Amino acid sequence: MKEAAIQVRNFSHYYGNNRSLKDLNFDVYRHEILGIIGPARSGKSTFLACLNRLNDLIPGSRVEGQILVDGQDIYRPDVDVVALRRKIGMVFATPVPLPLSVYENVVYGVRLLGKNNVKEVDFLVEDSLEKAGLWDEVKGRLQTSALKLSGGQQQRLCIARILALKPEYILLDEPTSGLDPISTMKIEDSLRTLKKDYTIILVTNNTKQAARIADRTAFFLMGELVEINETPIIFTRPADKRTEDYLVGKFG
Amino acid sequence: MLVRPKTEQKIVQALLYFFTSIAVLVLLFILVVILKNGLPQLSLEFLTKNPADMGREGGILSTIVATIFLTFIALLVATPLGVGTAIYLTEYTVENRVTRIIRFGAECLAGIPSIIFGLFGFILFVNKLKLGWSILSGGLTLAFMVLPTIIRTSEEAIKSVPQTYRLVSFSLGSTRWQAITRVVLPSAVPGIVTGIILSIGRSIGETAAVIFTAGSALRMPSSLFSSSRTMAVHFYILAKEGVSMPKAYGTAAVLVIAILIINLVTYYLMERYIQRKS
Fold first, then answer.
1. Residue B216 carries which DSSP code?
2. Average per-residue pLDDT in chain A?
């Protein structure tokens, strides 16, 4: 039996009166890549935002039920949201390097903690970029602006920036939607390596991507979890007709 | 009568060109008149000697010093107040009735004639707070006069910083304040500085609000509580009371050149800042 790192229990989310996530119940196992697929507006991104509580920033956002991360209910009032977000890193659909140097982008999160020891920080930068598969491409220009990198490099920089915080979870919201196939491949390679040490949730519009790298896949539709299972099973013998219809391209 | 689109295009282009040239010509006219009459008055002595005989003789050193002090105090007070208000309005509130009222208030403040600010400063700072006609009273009055400009330009600058920067900062575990100081404000600096430059220009050139609050004493200010005369007020008095037109033009030339230099230097620095950032 695998260990459940994240437990979602009767969880619903509302924007105003609009129920965007409906009574979700499932677990995310430690050190797996969980792919979440589904058509637009199915609640995939909202679910990610609920996991690191970025949804707090949206006016009218409200939740019911529980999400337990490492056994801790993250919606309890005494939860330290800032610490939670450090533990659960998030990569967005469009790469958003901050208008700082490559180096300062990587250490942005740890600088917030007041870490300034040059040797430690230097090591962290190299280590994080290495893990994100970007070190060889940028080691000679750490001090140039991150805005000068290519789209694919920027997205790997965003991953490195999260790794520098030594998180336990990495959420990716369609991380390769704007990238060319080669950049996409590089990011997928990094993710395969990273799952040894991290629990990864990957939201993707590209079902083939889920098929390539997700251990398990969940299918979301209109805010509901239709089904979740081992990726090969979802793609060959889905239990629900709607999953099959989506995968063969009948809608979405 | 039907005008062919091509002809119409030519006419409009000529008309717009004409309008633009009028704006440029007026600026040139002002510059030429002031510099032609003023430049011959300029000398090292004019800049380094105090006025004598009510301004008929000597230079304008004391008025330069007074102008610098007044502007400095105005910006020292208005910048933190204005930028702070802008941060509060954009980052710490959601758009609602209260923020709209505050914004409307700031806008009204911007529309008030400067002489009314002079009156306000006279009543509050000079009389009520017993600061007298002084650099301090004048500087504080100017601060409130330029406050709306700084609020408005800072707000626009902060709003134009992409929302995603804030999201990323939060997602990396920053507090709201850390996101503001580390990402939002550095990106907004060029816009904020533009507001400050505009305010410096207005403060240096202001006459009505200053004459009521800083007074017009023609001597070197010795403290924040000295009454003193700025360049703009000096020019006004020299010209209006027919004391000395040449000296008035000389003062005007210094004023114009100073503002020109401030603008050029800041744009140069800004350009370098933006290049370094991207």
1. -
2. 92
Asked if the C-beta of A248 comes within 8 angstroms of chain B's C-beta atoms, the answer is: no
Q: How many CB pairs under 8 A join A and B?
A: 62
Examine residue A75 and state whether it is found in any structural domain, yes or no: no
Q: Which tokens is B86 given?
A: 């802008």
What's the whole-number average pLDDT of chain B? 92
Specify the fold of B44-277: MetI-like fold (1.10.3720)
Q: Are A187 and A179 spatial neighbours (Cβ–Cβ below 8 Å)?
A: yes
Nearest by CB to A108, which of B167, B172, B278? B172
Strands of chain B, DSSP E: 51-52, 57-58
Residue A2 lies in a domain: no
Provide the pLDDT confidence category of residue B278 given band limits of 50, 70 and 90: low
For residue A134, report the phi and psi dihedrals to the nearest 5 degrees.
-120, -15
Closest CA to B238 of B64, B66, B53, B61: B53
Instruction: Give the domain extent around A132.
Output: 35-54+81-247
**Burial of residue B50 (number of CB atoms within 10 Å: 0-12, 13-18, 19+):** middle
pLDDT, one tens digit per residue, over B57-97 is 888 999 999 999 999 999 999 999 999 999 999 999 888 88
Among all chains, which residue has been given the structure tokens 């990011």? A187
Q: Residue A230 sits in a domain of what CATH number?
A: 3.40.50.300
- Give the total number of structural domains in chain A: 1
Say yes or no: B266 contacts chain A, CB-CB below 8 A: no
A168 in contact with B at a CB cutoff of 8 Å?
no
Question: Which residue of chain B comes nearest to A81, CA vs CA?
Answer: B173
Q: Token match 């001090």: residue?
A: A143
Q: What is the pLDDT of residue A1?
A: 56
What is the per-residue pLDDT for B96? 84
Q: In degrees rounded to 5, what are phi and psi of residue B47?
A: -85, -20
**Sign of dihedral through CA atoms B152, B153, B155, B160?**
positive
Q: What is the ipTM of this complex?
A: 0.89
User: Does A41 fall in a domain?
Assistant: yes
* Reported confidence tier of residue A252, pLDDT bands at 50, 70, 90: low
A64 within domain boundaries: no
Tell whether B164 lies on the interface with A, counting CB pairs under 8 A. Answer: yes
3-state secondary structure at position B218: coil
Instruction: With beta carbons less than 8 A apart as the criterion, state whether A134 and A102 touch.
Output: no
